[in-house]
C-alpha cells in the first residue's frame, strides 16, 4: 500500500489549520495510507490546542512538531525529516482541498509516471474584497491541461505531490530547502529549479485544486505592490544563485539593464493609462515595483517575509 506524508507548516493560523485538517480527514482515496505532519513555528505554539484536538480525530496518523524558529525552510525540512511515506504532499495552512484532492493527484502521477505533480491554488475572497481585486486576477496563476509537462516557472509549493526519494536527492548539507531563504521566501523556487535541472518529470494536474483564503489586508494596492517588489528581489537573488559563478557578473549586468529598461517603460505606461484605464495602469505599476525589487537586490538588502504576522 502506498503511503503519502502530508507536510504542513503553520504560523498563527489555528482556525485555518483546523479547516485544512478537517478537509484532509474527509479525503476519498483508497489503497493509500496517510501520515500528516504539522510543524508549528510560532514561538507561542499557537496551534497546540487545535492540534491536541486533532490528534484524537486522526487516530495516530497525525504528528506535530513545535519548532519555535522563524525560518520556513527549517520548518519544511523538519516535516520532511519526519516523513516516511514514499510520497510527500505539501499544502499551506491557509488552504483547503475538496474530498477528491489526493485521489486526483495520485491518479495523475500514475497516469503520467511523474516525479512531481503540481495543481492549482485558487483564491477564495471574502465579502469585503473589492471588485477591482477580483477583476484583476492578482491572486490567480495560469492553469494548464491535465498531464502538461511543466518546468520550474510554473512550480510552487502550495499544492504539490513529490516523490520523496527525488526530494532527498536534492538535499545539500542535509537540507532539502535552503535555510538561507528561510526568512525571505524563495526556498521553494530554488528547490524546484534544481529538480527541473536534475531532470525530474514535473506535470500539472488541473483536477486537484486547493482553495486559498485571501484576507482583507492582502486585497490592497499597497500589499500587492509590496509583493511585486519582493518577488523582484527574490527573482534576482535566485537567478544569480543558480547562474554559474564565472557567468554571474555578466548575467547580473544584463538583468540589471533589462530591469532598468522595463521600469522606464512601465512608468511611461502608468502615466499613459492612469486616467483612461486605472486598472491597466495598476498592472503596469506592479511591473515597475517588480523591476525596482530586482534592482534593490544589488543594494544588499534581503526582504523578510517570514517571522511576522503573515508568516508561513
Which properties best describe this structure?
17% strand; disordered C terminus; seven-stranded mixed β-sheet; 10 strands; three-stranded mixed β-sheet; alpha/beta; 2 domains; membrane
Q: What is the count of β-strands?
A: 10
Mean pLDDT rating: 93
Task: Output the strand order for the largest sheet.
Answer: 3-2-1-4-8-6-9
Describe the biggest sheet? Answer: 7 strands, mixed
Count of domain modules: 2
Gyration radius, rounded: 20 Å
CATH fold naming of the largest domain? Spore Coat Polysaccharide Biosynthesis Protein SpsA, Chain A
Uncertain parts: 308-312
Assigned CATH superfamily of the largest domain: Spore Coat Polysaccharide Biosynthesis Protein SpsA, Chain A
Order of helices and strands: EHEHEHEEHEEHEHHEEHHH
Oligomer: single chain
What is the second-level CATH architecture of the largest domain?
Answer: Alpha-Beta Complex
Percent strand equals: 15-25%
Determine the fraction of residues in helical runs and give it as a percent range: 40-55%
- Tell me the name of the CATH class of the largest domain: Alpha Beta
The helix/strand class is alpha/beta
InterPro entries: Glyco_trans_2-like, Glycosyltransf_2, Nucleotide-diphossugar_trans
Protein name: Glycosyltransferase family 2 protein
Pfam families: Glycos_transf_2
Keywords: Membrane, Transmembrane, Transmembrane helix
Amino acid at each position: 500500500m502506498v503511503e503519502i506524508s502530508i507536510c504542513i507548516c503553520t504560523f498563527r493560523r489555528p482556525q485555518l489549520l483546523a479547516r485544512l485538517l478537517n478537509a484532509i480527514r474527509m479525503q476519498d482515496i483508497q489503497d493509500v495510507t496517510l501520515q500528516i505532519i504539522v510543524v508549528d513555528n510560532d514561538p507561542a505554539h499557537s496551534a497546540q490546542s487545535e492540534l491536541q484536538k486533532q490528534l484524537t480525530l486522526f487516530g495516530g496518523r497525525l504528528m506535530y512538531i513545535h519548532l519555535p524558529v522563524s525560518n520556513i525552510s527549517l520548518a519544511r525540512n523538519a516535516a520532511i525529516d519526519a516523513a516516511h511515506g514514499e510520497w510527500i504532499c505539501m499544502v499551506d495552512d491557509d488552504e483547503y482541498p475538496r474530498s477528491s484532492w489526493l485521489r486526483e493527484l495520485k491518479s495523475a502521477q500514475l497516469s503520467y509516471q511523474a516525479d512531481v505533480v503540481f495543481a492549482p491554488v485558487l483564491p477564495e475572497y471574502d465579502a469585503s474584497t473589492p471588485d477591482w481585486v477580483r477583476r484583476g486576477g492578482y491572486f490567480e496563476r495560469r492553469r494548464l491541461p491535465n498531464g502538461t509537462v511543466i518546468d520550474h516557472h510554473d512550480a510552487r509549493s502550495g499544492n504539490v505531490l513529490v516523490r520523496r526519494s527525488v526530494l532527498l536527492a536534492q538535499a545539500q548539507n542535509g537540507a532539502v530547502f535552503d535555510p538561507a531563504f528561510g526568512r525571505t521566501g524563495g526556498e521553494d523556487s530554488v528547490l524546484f529549479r534544481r529538480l527541473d535541472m536534475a531532470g525530474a518529470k514535473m506535470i500539472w494536474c488541473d483536477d486537484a485544486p486547493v482553495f486559498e483564503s485571501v484576507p482583507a489586508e492582502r486585497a490592497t494596492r499597497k500589499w500587492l505592490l509590496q509583493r511585486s517588489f519582493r518577488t523582484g528581489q527574490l527573482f534576482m537573488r535566485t537567478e544569480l544563485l543558480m547562474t554559474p559563478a564565472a557567468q554571474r557578473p555578466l548575467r547580473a549586468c544584463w538583468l540589471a539593464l533589462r530591469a532598468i529598461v522595463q521600469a522606464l517603460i512601465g512608468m511611461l505606461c502608468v502615466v499613459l493609462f492612469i486616467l483612461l484605464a486605472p486598472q491597466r495602469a495598476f498592472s503596469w505599476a506592479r511591473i515597475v515595483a517588480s523591476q525596482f525589487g530586482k534592482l534593490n537586490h544589488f543594494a544588499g538588502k534581503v526582504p523578510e517575509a517570514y517571522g511576522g504576522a503573515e508568516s508561513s
